[in-house]
Amino acid sequence: MTAAGTRPRTGFLFPGQSSEYVGMGVELHREHPLFRAAIDRHADQFRRLTGVGPLDVFADPAAQTRAELLQPAVFLLQVALAEFWTSCGVRPDAVVGHSLGEYAAACAAGVFGVEEGLELVGARGRAFAAVPGAGRMVAVGAPDPAELERLVAAHGGAASVAAYNAPERIVVSGTDTAMGELTAAFERRGWLTIPLETTHAFHSTLVAPAVPELVAAAGRIRHRTPAVPLALNLTGGWAAGGELGAEYWGRQLTSPIRFMAGVRALMDGGCTVFLEVGPGRTLTTAGGAQSDGGELRLAGLSPRTPDSVTVLEHLTRLEEAGIPVDWVRYHAPFRATGRTFGDRPGVDRPAPAPSTELPFRIERVVIHESASTAGSGVAVVRHRVGGTAREVVDVSVVDDAGRPVVEVFGLELGAGTGEEVGGPDQISPEEAERLLASLDALTEDQLHALLPLWAGPDASTPVGSTEE
Fold first, then answer.
1. In whole angstroms, what is the distance from residue 451 CA to residue 459 CA?
2. Where exactly are the structural domains of the chain?
3. Torsion (CA) 377, 443, 429, 22 in degrees, nearest 10
């Protein structure tokens, strides 16, 4: 636990390749100007390096099979997310990355800039693209790491330990033949094995042909001493001045990733909040496996949850953990672009009184503790991307300081029927926004009385709480 008035130390975790998914970051780019600006600032350089725009890779499954496109896309997504979280007041006290994610971690630590990092990761992707895909990787639930290492070493250069991710979570990489024999040996011992879908046998000698091009590219980039503590993949310890350079990235490509030790370094350094900066929850799960449960661990973007929901819930939980979130900065771009309503100037007609027959279907509502004391607020609407014939939005009512008072997730507009929810046959998004403006003036008691009528008794969460 964190002492009263003390900001908890926060660790940023940057995942590696295979965390990506089709559509990663697309909605956040569309819906939030801060993130969009961070991506667009480097879009021209990305296009020069790859021939396509970053959103073309984020959204295209075929592009994500090509290392020369995917690797710089994952890097850019991660550094843009790090900039986004920092803009919202969530700053890292320490960072660690996993394999490809270590490049984004180094960038966030100030080892090199985003443009330099894109050049370096672009060269890494091209070097991998030139190496024929061969071999495979297997995750192993091995309770005896020494025995696993002995079995792997017996295959010489045909197999390698690729990563120590967490207790009893080790990844092995090698040729098809060696991996078949090792998998059988692991399973005879009763160890769980999970084949991994990868383009190459990463962190093994099979990818050594990519090293010279990567080292040459890294040699053209100036490496600075980390301004933020950075736990290294090769040692699991903290990076010191001069330790990161061209040769480091060459060795990192073919050596085991000691992510478990890196997370332990962050924990020993006092980090109690861990934010996965990228797509997926792989590192959140791995970090939790060596935890006593006392930390706050927040996963990355997910294909199952709208980006706008993820970031709002994370910011709320981070604030509840004692991190001062900059809600004014978070909401400012929406107000600047006219995406607000409720107290919006120039609206002649007043908002109607709250209705118990609004034709809305709502996934979930969060009422924050400040709802009972807040005065008038401003409602901010974020439109979700795709997934339904109806228009779906998430709504936040924020107070004068930009802090959320009420959040409504998954509200469907434009095609509800009276038979379903007891309202009129159809309502336009414009009319729905006008009606939603009445949320600004509701008290906590009124909200609790109305929400079960709008969305059923399960729509309202307890005051001051959120769900994962």
1. 7
2. 9-130+205-318, 136-196, 334-455
3. 80
Number of H helices, E strands in the chain: 18, 14
Tell whether the torsion through CA atoms of 198, 21, 32 and 377 is positive or negative: negative
**Same topology for domains 9-130+205-318 and 136-196, yes or no?**
no
Its CATH architecture, for the domain 136-196, is 2-Layer Sandwich (3.30)
d(CA 286, CA 281): 9
Q: What is the pTM of this model?
A: 0.76
Residue whose C-alpha is closest to residue 169's, from 266, 90, 281, 257: 257
pLDDT digits (tens, 9 = 90+) for 361-387: 566 667 665 544 544 456 666 666 655
Give the Cα separation of 42 and 73 in Å (integer): 11
Token code pair at residue 92: 């890292």
Separation of alpha carbons 353 and 338, rounded Å: 24
Sign for the pseudo-dihedral over CA of 415, 416, 419, 424: negative
Residues 410-453: pLDDT tens digits? 776 544 433 333 333 344 445 444 445 444 444 444 444 444 44
Which DSSP category does 439 fall into? G
CATH architecture classification, 9-130+205-318: 3-Layer(aba) Sandwich (3.40)
